[in-house]
Amino acid sequence: AVADPGPLFYPVALAFRLTPWTLLGAVLGGVALARGWPAQRVALRLLLICGLMYLLAITLLAKKFDRYALPVVPLIELLAAVGWVWAAEQLATRNARLAARATALVTGGLLALSLINLAWYHPYELSYYSPLLGGGPAAAQTIPVGWGEGYDQAMAFIVSQPDGCQRAVAVWMPTMIERYRARCWNLRSLHALRSPDNDIGYVMLYRDVIQRGLYADVVDQLASQQEPLYTVRIHGIELAYVYQLPYPIANRIDVDIGPAIRLQGYTIDAARLRTTGAITLRLQWQARAPVGQDLMLAVRLLDQAGATVAQIDVPPAGPEAPSSGWQLYKYLSRTQPLPVAGNLPAGSYWLALALYTPGDFARLTPHNPPPAPGAPAYDQTALLLGPISVP
C-alpha cells in the first residue's frame, strides 16, 4: 500500500478494466475524430474533454480506487462505438462486396465477443482484467483488486469443516459474511483473536485488506506462523485466504513427530478421575507434510518408577479422521479419555505418547521434545508429558 499511487493510476486501471475490443475501438475512434468524422464530432469532443477533466480532478486526490473512474467508462465506450462504426464504413467503401454486410459483421462480432466474455467471467464479472495486460494475476500486482467476489467460496469451505458451524469467524468486514455466518468477529489483534473467550476458529484475509495494509500485525503474524488452510482463486487471482486458529489448549509445545506431524499442544484433566474413572486428554495435531499412512497413538500412564498403570492405543485424531487423510496445516483436536483403575494411588504420574505404524509397530521419533524434569526413565521414542497430580 502507498499513500498515493500517482497520476498514472487511473489510465492503468482503466486499461486493465476495458476489453481489448473496447481499447481498439477507442483508438479507432480517436483516428476517426482526427479525420473529421463523424458530423457530431464537436459534441463528442466536448464529452471527452469533460471525461478528461473528471479524470484529472480525481487524480489530484490521494485516495484512489478504480471504481472512482466509472463515470468515464460510458464515454470511452461511446468513443469505441464511434471507432467501430467508422471502421465498418471504411471497410464498406473499400470493398463493395462487403458494403451491405460490413456493419452487421462488425456488430455481430463485437456482440459475440462481449457475450462470450460475460459468460466466461460469470458470476464473478468483477474479476475481469484485460488479458492484453496479463489478466487478473498482473492486475493483482499493479492495482487494488477484489470487491467481495470469493467470499461465498471461503465461507462455503469453512461451513464444510466439522467445526465450521460452531466456531466463530474473524473477517475485516463482518457485514459482508452475515448472510453466510451468524457468528463473526471483526479483525483486531492476533492476541484478541486467540483469546479462548472469543472461540474464533477461522480467520479470512481478503486480498484488498492485504494490499491496503490493513491489520498488518495480524496479516504478518498469520503469514509467518502458518500456511492458509484454503485459498480462493478466481480467474488467476488469489482473492481470499482462510486460516484456522488452534483450539484453546492449556499447554503449547509444538513438537514435531516424524517427518510430517506436529503435536501443537495438549490439555490434561485428572480432577474428575475419582468420579469418572478416567483421565481426560486433549491433543491437538497438525500435518506439516503429507502423512501418507494411518498411524496409531500409544498412550501410557506411568508412575514415578516408570511402570505402566494404564494404557490405550487409538488413532491420534480418532477413527473418523485417519492420519492418511489429514489436510495440510489443518488443526485436528480430539478429547480422549484414558480409563484408570479406581484404586489408583494418589500421587504424581506421567503420560508417555508415541506414534507408530500398526503394521510393524515402528515408532516415529519426536524432535526437540520439551524438557521433562523429574520424569521416569522411558523409551526415547516416546514423548513424556507431566507431571500429572492425581488426587
Description:
The chain has 391 residues and is an alpha+beta fold. It folds into three domains: 9-140, no CATH class; 151-244, no CATH class; 251-390, Immunoglobulins (Immunoglobulin-like, Sandwich), CATH 2.60.40. The protein has eleven helices and 14 strands. The protein has a five-stranded mixed sheet with strand order 2-1-3-5-4. The longest helix is centred in the N-terminal third of the chain and has 22 residues, at 73-94. It starts with 8 loop residues before the first helix and ends with a strand.
Structure summarized in a few sentences:
With 391 residues, the protein is an alpha+beta fold. The chain has helices spanning 9-17, 20-34, 41-59, 73-94, 102-121, 135-140, 151-160, 190-193, 207-211, 216-225, 273-276, and strands at 168-171, 184-186, 200-206, 230-234, 237-244, 251-257, 261-269, 278-287, 296-302, 308-314, 331-339, 347-356, 366-367, 383-390.
Helix and strand arrangement:
Layout: H1 9-17, H2 20-34, H3 41-59, H4 73-94, H5 102-121, H6 135-140, H7 151-160, E1 168-171, E2 184-186, H8 190-193, E3 200-206, H9 207-211, H10 216-225, E4 230-234, E5 237-244, E6 251-257, E7 261-269, H11 273-276, E8 278-287, E9 296-302, E10 308-314, E11 331-339, E12 347-356, E13 366-367, E14 383-390
Parallel strand pairs: 1-2, 1-3
Antiparallel strand pairs: 3-5, 4-5, 6-7, 6-13, 7-8, 8-11, 9-10, 9-12, 12-14
Helix pairs in contact: 2-4, 4-5
